[in-house]
Amino acid sequence: MDWITTVDHKKIAILYLWAGGLFFGIGGLEAILIRIQLIKPMNTFLDAQTFNELITMHGTTMIFLGVMPVIFALMNAVIPLQIGARDVAFPFLNSLGFWTFLFGGLLLNLSWVMGGAPDAGWTAYTPLSGKGYSASHGVDFYTIGLQIAGLGTLIGGINFLATIITMRAPGMSFMRMPMFAWATFITSAIILFAFPAVTVGLVLLTFDRILDANFFDVDGGGNPVLWQHIFWIFGHPEVYILILPAFGIISEVIPTFSRKRLFGYSSMVFATILIAFLGFMVWAHHMFTTGLGPVANALFSVSTMLIAVPTGIKIFNWLFTMWGGQVRFTTPNLFAAGFIPTFTMGGVTGVMLASAPADFQFHDTYFVVAHFHYVIVGGLVLGLFAGLHYWWPKMFGRMLSETLGKWTFWTFIIGFHLTFFVQHFLGLMGMQRRVFTYLPNQQFDTLNLVSTVGAFLMGVGMIIFLINVFLTSRRPADAPEDPWEDGRTLEWTIPSPPPEYNFKQTPLVRGLDAFWKEKMAGHKAMTPAEPIGPIHMPSATILPFLMSVGIFIAGLGFMFSRDEFSSSIMSFLFNNYIVTALGLLITFGSMLMRSLFDDHGWHIEPEELEEGEQR
Amino acid sequence: MTTAHAEAADGILPHEPEKATLEGRNKVLAFWLFLGGEAVLFGTLFATFLALRNQTNEGPTAAELFHLPLVAAATLLLLVSSLTSVFAIQAMHRGNVAQLRNWLLVTVLLGLAFLILEIYEFSVYIRHEEFGMTTSAFSSAFYTLVGFHGAHVAFGILWIAVLIGQLLHKGLTVVTAPKIYVSAMYWHFIDVVWVFIFTVVYLLGKVG
Ligand code: HEM
Ligand SMILES: [Cu+2]
């Protein structure tokens, strides 16, 4: 109950982590099934339809329900602490964002047991995703589930933007803000401008499927390429939504374990902004083969390659940070160090794909699969592992085992390269993506076997991580405030895990790497910027949960509104939009409640703060 | 000016009550951000409409369909409602709760009138012109874009109505003021979107 009603950003972070972890596990299982199917030619382990559903759900789940929530988990856990705030700007919305994400994800995964999962690929290209080719409710689960989950993401993005703009501690100018906070800020801005596009795309596709509209249906005058434009105007920025937080994490971990400040801080900030901007200009590089013509292809080719410049700046800055530093290879830093070459390889194949003529060869082969997994898994997932190991003691008050952590790292990264490195060659030799099997004696056999073995090794790495988490959770929570001893930013100045008000007194920031600066000046703690006083806290509430349940019900109701049911009561309820209306009623009713009954919150008095100190 | 200062000096409410607290300032800021997202949303809908507006699939075309006088009347109603919401905020800044309530009420009624005209317009198209959601790509794009705007208007009406109720119950405070201010921002936004719809959908549709 406590967890359902909480509005504390630290608890919401943990909710995001568990929910994201759960979906990540489901996505991982799907990946393993795909790889088992591809272990040998002409395999009959899965049929074609199931395979299509698995790749679709794997991609969709991983991106929207696996890694995004884990990113949000870290942002929620860390951002208010790093900027010296007591919470995010809108705790209520924070909770709402989590619950809509969770119910959207649940809706999407219900498809497995309710008549077939989506099967048109995670890009849901029309007409494949139209009713003509995909008659089950699968794609409806996709459009409506993602719509609901996307709402949560958008809410989260706005919340972080407002938080970072208005709630920084005194003295923390933008140019003194930690890189992870910068990454969060820019990522949230991308979310704000990219997600509404996919919102519209999903609405149009839903209308095509449920209301027989004609947006993408050529027979009615519609245009399938329009879907691709809308999808990729969102989809390309989305990959920067994923990777920029990883960049931010790496920029925190490497300086800490090199005992040096980040090399080229301001160029890092500038590069982040530039990447975000360019990210919006290059979407059509996913569409070179749709026939946009040579001029468009050339322009999008060049703009895509431009992104390599700010990205290169980042890579070199990380290397220069380590250069001459007192580098300690703790688990987080191992992951960060492993990130750099792996991500760079993904970047190099990205530039190769950006060349339009070459892309005509690479398109829809395993070369592309290898490329984006190098970026997403080799970049983002390694980054998330670095971040999780790094901030785990702050989130839970317990250090993860270093030994098991190193085992996780080595099995995961070796498994990763085994899985995906060979896929470059499979792709160059002509193995197609999204096809459920292949013929023998095309020289695909051995490499696919290697790839599957690698996937299992990655699975082993994940299991070791889970064991680590489990064993750690049984140990006492006794992590010190600054467990890595070289913490540079504000989150390391308060207890692990932090009390619910975070900072007893808001700290005064006197420079970049605020805590490190005080340490160098010989101080043990931050100088407070305010006297001790009562702290205002928002009250817990069930309304965000109820609102999300309402949207969930409305979504289901709308999806089945055209179905024929065997029972007449069901037909009556669904076909007259009664279920939909009921769901909306719950949502709007909860909104009304929120509006009518003001939340005055409560106060923690100074005496209680002192008591908390003693305990 | 003088009255505004006199009343602020009475010590009940600051001159700009919507920005008096951190929560209020956050709300206004976040709402600006939200409107940025809404702009992308409508931008995408406009782009879709522009891409499909000549794909009539042998159904009615824009030039055959639209009755400009009706749409112009609706436009006028909405523009005036934007003005009245400005009056409402000015009344709020003067601390005049009665005027604030009245202007909000007028805004809501004008919005309602707009909505009724729009529903009437749609029903004419559907019944007499056989122009429904499924007729053509143009019809789908038209109903989606204009309908989305209409849904925004409907939501705005409900929202402001609830706020009027709150105002009567709780009075003008640093809690209610930001909500009212933000709802006025929202109302202006949907008004601006309508100006674009009037131009891009209706005027452009008439001239070809
Ligand atoms: C952990 C080990 C993983 C393995 C073994 C794996 C394996 C695969 C395989 C075999 C495919 C199908 C390729 C095809 O036939 O088109 C695939 C597709 C995909 N994967 Fe993964 N994957 C893993 C992790 C991830 C992660 C972490 C993400 C994202 C965060 C991800 C994102 C995707 C996407 C977007 C697709 C494309 C799906 C589509 O074609 O619709 N994968 N993956
Ligand atoms: Cu791209």
Ligand names: protoporphyrin IX containing FE, copper (II) ion
Element-by-element helix/strand order of chain B: HHHHHHH
- Count of helices of chain B? 7
Distance between the ends of chain B? 49 Å
Major sheet characteristics of chain B: none
Indicate the percent of residues in helices of chain A.
55-70%
Instruction: Name the quaternary structure.
Output: heterodimer
Helicity range of the residues of chain B? over 70%
Counted beta strands of chain B = 0
**Order of helix and strand elements from N to C terminus of chain A:** HHHHHHHHHHHHHHHHEHHHEH
Please tell me what the overall shape of chain A is.
globular
Describe the largest sheet of chain A. Answer: 2 strands, antiparallel
Computed over alpha carbons, the radius of gyration of chain A is 25 Å
Note the main attributes of this structure.
heterodimer; A: 615 residues; mainly alpha; two-stranded antiparallel sheet; 20 helices; 2 strands; B: 208 residues; binds protoporphyrin IX containing FE; binds copper (II) ion
Description:
The complex is a heterodimer of chains A (615) and B (208). Chain A has 615 residues and is mainly alpha-helical. Chain A contains 20 helices and two strands. Chain A has helices at residues 2-5, 9-37, 48-82, 91-110, 138-166, 179-210, 224-258, 265-279, 294-306, 308-322, 331-354, 356-362, 366-396, 402-428, 445-473, 514-520, 543-559, 568-575, 578-596, 606-614, and strands at residues 535-537, 602-604. In chain A, helix 5 runs antiparallel to helix 17 (543-559) and helix 11 (331-354) runs parallel beside helix 14. The longest helix of chain A is centred in the first third of the chain and has 35 residues, at 48-82. With 208 residues, chain B is mostly helical. Helix content of chain B is 81%, strand content 0%. Chain B has seven helices and no strands. Chain B has helices at residues 2-9, 22-52, 62-65, 68-94, 97-128, 137-170, 176-207. The longest helix of chain B is centred in the last third of the chain and has 34 residues, at 137-170. Chain B is elongated, with a radius of gyration of 20 Å. The relative contact order of chain B is 0.18. Classes of the chains: A mainly alpha (615), B mainly alpha (208). Protoporphyrin IX containing FE binds at residues 28, 31, 34-35, 55-56, 58-59, 62-63, 66-67, 121-122, 369, 373, 376-377, 381, 419, 433-434, 455, 458 of chain A.
